[in-house]
Amino acid sequence: MREVANVNGTLSLLEDARIPITDRGFLYGDSLYEVIIIENGYPMFLKEHLERMKKSAEKMRMKLTISDEEMTEEINRTIAFYGEKPQRIYCRWIITRGTGPLTLANQTQPNNFVIIVKEFPVNADPLTSTVSVKVTDIQRNSDDSMDPNIKSGNYLNNILALDEANKDGYNECLMSRDGLLCELSRANFWLYSKGTWSTPAKHVLSGITRDKIIEALNSAGIKAEIRDIKVGELLEAEEVALSSTTKNLYPINLVHLNGKEHSFSSRENWIKANEVILKFISDYQKTLTPYF
Ligand SMILES: Cc1ncc(COP(=O)(O)O)c(C=O)c1O
């Protein structure tokens, strides 16, 4: 399968791409990133991802030396170089605080950027798939330390929680903090109870899919909100799900909490929500010019 990269404007196969070992992304995880999916040629929510990139840069006090227009142009060049036209293309761009001396002191150099483009598999059927999560002992980073709302390249918190869940036999982790549910390693969390879809407010990344789901559901008269969700609320939930750029709203069927497993077999409300979301996506695509 062809996988290509663009490093500071130089296009190559992924395996041939190189960055300097003094790059701060490599040394310290001092980088930000975004992922978009190009679905049937349509670059999904590119504008929103560029906006979040700038918010991350601001929160991490990183000066961006590449503009939205330059980034978009480089993404377009990389997709043209990739050349293939599968149903789903994965496009990740990473911007680092540049190449620097071996010190933590802040930026003196321009950013380095890397874009990676490859095919992304179509999701397994959500009606029959099994996603199990463990509410981990590892807590989510706090909003007021390393804010999860910075989409940085430093995923150690998530890696540790995912490792804990995987070692215990679960596909995914569900991190919490101070008794509140937060998010999974690469996805926001959702819970359906008493007629409302809810997703956690604190210690999470502001997922672009999360915001689009809220917009889509609310405009279709289905209640969806961002709020604090206590860990114990899991016990009363009717359905639980995750959301991300690659998965949209995707059901979770098993949650491990404090040594007990809770299964969620109903997809009734997920099916209703998913219909609305798919219509929202199709309407959105009609506003775009596809790549191919
Ligand atoms: C920690 C975390 N939370 C949530 C998300 C979902 O965000 P989005 O919907 O923008 O893909 C991601 C996606 O990578 C993530 O890494």
How many structural units, i.e. domains?
Answer: 2
| Strand content bin | 25-35%
Q: Could you please say which CATH topology of the largest domain applies here?
A: D-amino Acid Aminotransferase, Chain A, domain 2
SS element count, helices:
6
Query: Helicity range of the residues?
Result: 25-40%
Structural class: alpha+beta
Question: Over the alpha carbons, how many angstroms does the gyration radius reach?
Answer: 19 Å
Runs in which pLDDT lies below 50 for 5 or more consecutive residues are: none
* Major β-sheet strand ordering: 2-1-6-5-3-4
CATH homology group of the largest domain = D-amino Acid Aminotransferase, subunit A, domain 2
Estimate the global geometry from the Cα principal axes.
globular
Oligomerization status of the protein chains: single chain
Order of helices and strands: EEHEEHHEEEHEEEEEHEEEEEH
The averaged pLDDT comes out at 97
Major sheet summary line:
6 strands, antiparallel
CATH architecture designation of the largest domain = Alpha-Beta Barrel
Bound molecule types: pyridoxal-5'-phosphate
Protein name: Oidioi.mRNA.OKI2018_I69.PAR.g9868.t1.cds
Family: Belongs to the class-IV pyridoxal-phosphate-dependent aminotransferase family.
Keywords: Amino-acid biosynthesis, Branched-chain amino acid biosynthesis
Pfam family, one: Aminotran_4
Structural write-up:
It is a single chain. The protein is built from six helices and 17 strands. The model has no long low-confidence stretch (mean pLDDT 97). The protein folds into two domains: 3-119, D-amino Acid Aminotransferase, Chain A, domain 1 (2-Layer Sandwich); 132-282, D-amino Acid Aminotransferase, Chain A, domain 2, CATH 3.20.10. By secondary structure, it is of the alpha+beta class. The two termini are 19 Å apart. Helix content is 26%, strand content 28%. The longest helix is centred in the last third of the chain and has 18 residues, at 268-285. The protein has a six-stranded antiparallel sheet. The chain has a five-stranded mixed sheet with strand order 13-12-11-14-15, covered by helices on one side. It has helices at residues 24-28, 46-59, 68-82, 156-167, 208-219, 268-285, and strands at 3-7, 10-13, 31-39, 42-43, 88-96, 112-119, 132-135, 172-174, 176-177, 180-181, 188-193, 196-200, 223-227, 239-244, 248-252, 254-257, 260-263. Residues 158, 183, 186-188, 205, 207-210, 243-245 line the site of pyridoxal-5'-phosphate (PLP).
